[in-house]
Amino acid sequence: MTTTADDVWKLLAELVEAQKETERCFQETERRFQETERVLKEQSLETERRFQETERILKEQSLKTDRQITRVSQEIGNLGGKWGRFVENMVAPACETLFLNRDIRVHQVSQRVRKRLDGKTLEIDVLVTNENHVLVVEVKSSLSVDDVKELIKNLTEFRQFFPEYNQKQLYGAVAGIEIEEGADKYAYRQGLFVLAQRGENVAILNDTEVQPKTW
């Protein structure tokens, strides 16, 4: 079969048309790619916007929660301080007569006695004195073993802060509305008086035969 000039031109025309179609397909593919890229970019921007909005909300909520925690902590602290003063105000008057049957006459009862020495501070909840004795009372709404240990530490440092009592016999006592398990027994073993609420009154829990430790 002989190929004529017309056949060649026809083939060239078909080739040109095929190239045009390929170009159209390429352009359409490019358009779709750009559209897909645009959609993905918009989605990415929307995702980023939502993420930032979520982060902002969480940050605001965290700040709000922190403020609430701070406020509640302050209220609890204020309540604890008021409750602590209430307990001290109950124990201090009782000390005026409580130690008479332990041969300790009371001449003076002071509350919240504080002394500073070399940058350190020693604070006594209740201080009971007479001409021969001085009694340091640690008062807690709920008495723990750690509270007893804290009093013992204060007793060992007491004469450094209060040398005016060096000639007096020094005793220690712990008092609590509630006493955690083991705290009273630990205090007994350390030679301390243990005071607690009994009905409407405050009482000494130690046996009368037990002699307190002199510090």
Structural key phrases:
single chain, alpha/beta, 215 residues, Restrct_endonuc-II-like, 6 strands, rod-shaped, Trna Endonuclease, Chain: A, domain 1
Describe it:
The chain has 215 residues and is α/β, with parallel strands linked by helices. The protein has a domain at 90-204: Trna Endonuclease, Chain: A, domain 1 (3-Layer(aba) Sandwich), CATH 3.40.1350. It is built from 3 helices and 6 strands. Strand 5 and strand 6 form a beta hairpin. Helix 2 packs parallel to helix 3. The model has no long low-confidence stretch (mean pLDDT 82). It comes from Microcystis aeruginosa NIES-3787. This is DUF3782 domain-containing protein. InterPro entries: Restrct_endonuc-II-like.
Mean pLDDT: 82
Helicity range:
40-55%
Ends distance: 131 Å
The tally of helices reads: 3
| Main sheet summary | 6 strands, mixed
What's the β-strand tally? 6
CATH architecture of the domain at 90-204: 3-Layer(aba) Sandwich
Oligomer: single chain
- What value does the Rg take, in angstroms? 43 Å
Which strand order does the major sheet show?
Answer: 1-2-3-4-5-6
Strand-residue proportion: 15-25%
Approximate shape: rod-shaped
For the record, the CATH class of the domain at 90-204 is Alpha Beta
